[in-house]
């Protein structure tokens, strides 16, 4: 009978993040602004890369444009649903909606991990092998690498979604989290989750550890190469180009490792940590890449000035 009842579950209730009721409106407005600015900031990056021929022909900025698409996607998957927790009434998420949210989050999240690795490799080639860089990192190769990252991310997301929702869920249906993620959903399963937890730990652990190790190795070589640059201006430009990527990678990987690569606990810090890759990082990426990247800032200035050029001439 329990097995029959497990098929009757049609929705989950996301409890959201704990907050004082008197701050309900403030939190709603805060995350609404975060969401709007995230979409506008990443859209601006996309338009700038696409409109400036000096940028969209270079692999580094192709990767940056793809990163903006991913950030817009992750924010759209998570933040609007999070904002619903700051409105009146209980708003359940359909079972299929929960499956889709978990799949797309892990699909885009793992694709982002692979993309960060490609960006580090691109910087390694540009700084450590500058003469061979145009031959080694062509536009065709960068497009193939991006396609491979999307494919690998899709497989990873599908694997995690299938493994999570193959289990029976017979109630309760209250997910103690602000979105459908693996650890929170697995706590509601009416079956042994040991295999799922092991596969999740190994799968995500391999993705995170391998990507982070490759990024680390790339930047060890990059730092050694930068220190060999004789001019202070050259060193400053190299550090400026790489500094944005290092900042973003650090902000992204630390909370992900905290959530997925430690013994199972139901800590209130999990929700706070999860806000970083789901809401804060997509918001910060455009700021980091525009404030710390001189080429993007110059492209933005050229784009903003271009409408006035005909009249000036």
UniProtKB/TrEMBL annotation:
Q: What is its main location?
A: membrane
Picking any one GO molecular function of the record gives:
G protein-coupled receptor activity
Q: Look up keyword Transmembrane and say if it applies.
A: yes
Annotated coiled-coil segments of the chain: none
Q: Where in the cell is it found?
A: Cell membrane
Q: Which residues cross the membrane?
A: 26-49, 61-83, 103-121, 141-163, 204-227, 239-260, 272-291
An example of a Pfam family matching this protein is: 7tm_4
Keyword hit for Transmembrane helix: yes
Q: Quote the SUPFAM superfamilies the UniProt record gives.
A: Family A G protein-coupled receptor-like
- Membrane-topology descriptor: Multi-pass membrane protein
InterPro entries, per the entry: GPCR_Rhodpsn (IPR000276), GPCR_Rhodpsn_7TM (IPR017452), Olfact_rcpt (IPR000725)
Q: Which UniProt keywords apply?
A: Cell membrane, G-protein coupled receptor, Membrane, Olfaction, Receptor, Sensory transduction, Transducer, Transmembrane, Transmembrane helix
Domain G-protein coupled receptors family 1 profile, by residue range, is 41-289
Q: Which GO terms describe its cellular component?
A: plasma membrane
Protein task: Odorant receptor.
The protein's name in its UniProt record: Olfactory receptor family 10 subfamily G member 3
Provide the species name: Pan paniscus
Gene this protein is translated from: OR10G3
């Amino acid at each position: 009978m329990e097995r029959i009842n497990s098929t009757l579950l049609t929705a989950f209730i996301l409890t959201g993040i704990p907050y004082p009721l008197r701050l309900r409106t403030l939190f709603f407005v805060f995350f609404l602004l975060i969401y709007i600015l995230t979409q506008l900031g990443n859209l601006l990056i996309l338009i700038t890369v696409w409109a400036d021929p000096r940028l969209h022909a270079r692999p580094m900025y192709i990767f940056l444009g793809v990163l903006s698409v991913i950030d817009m996607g992750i924010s759209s998957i998570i933040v609007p649903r999070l904002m619903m927790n700051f409105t009146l009434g209980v708003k359940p998420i359909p079972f299929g909606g929960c499956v889709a949210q978990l799949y797309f989050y892990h699909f885009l999240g793992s694709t982002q991990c692979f993309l960060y690795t490609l960006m580090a490799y691109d910087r390694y080639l540009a700084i450590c092998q500058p003469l061979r860089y145009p031959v080694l990192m062509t536009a065709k190769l960068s497009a193939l690498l991006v396609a491979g990252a999307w494919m690998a991310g899709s497989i990873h997301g599908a694997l995690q979604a299938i493994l999570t929702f193959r289990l029976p869920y017979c109630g309760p249906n209250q997910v103690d989290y602000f979105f459908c993620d693996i650890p929170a959903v697995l706590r509601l399963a009416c079956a042994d989750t040991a295999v799922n937890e092991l596969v999740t730990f190994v799968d995500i652990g391999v993705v995170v550890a391998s990507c982070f190790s490759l990024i680390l190795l790339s930047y060890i070589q990059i730092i050694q190469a930068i220190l060999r640059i004789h001019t202070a201006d050259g060193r400053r430009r190299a550090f400026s180009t790489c500094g944005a990527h290092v900042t973003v990678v650090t902000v992204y990987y630390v909370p992900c490792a905290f959530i997925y690569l430690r013994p199972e606990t139901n800590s209130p810090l999990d929700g706070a940590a999860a806000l970083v890759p789901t809401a804060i990082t997509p918001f910060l990426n455009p700021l980091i890449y525009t404030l710390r990247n001189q080429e993007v800032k110059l492209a933005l200035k050229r784009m903003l000035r271009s409408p006035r050029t005909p009249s000036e001439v």
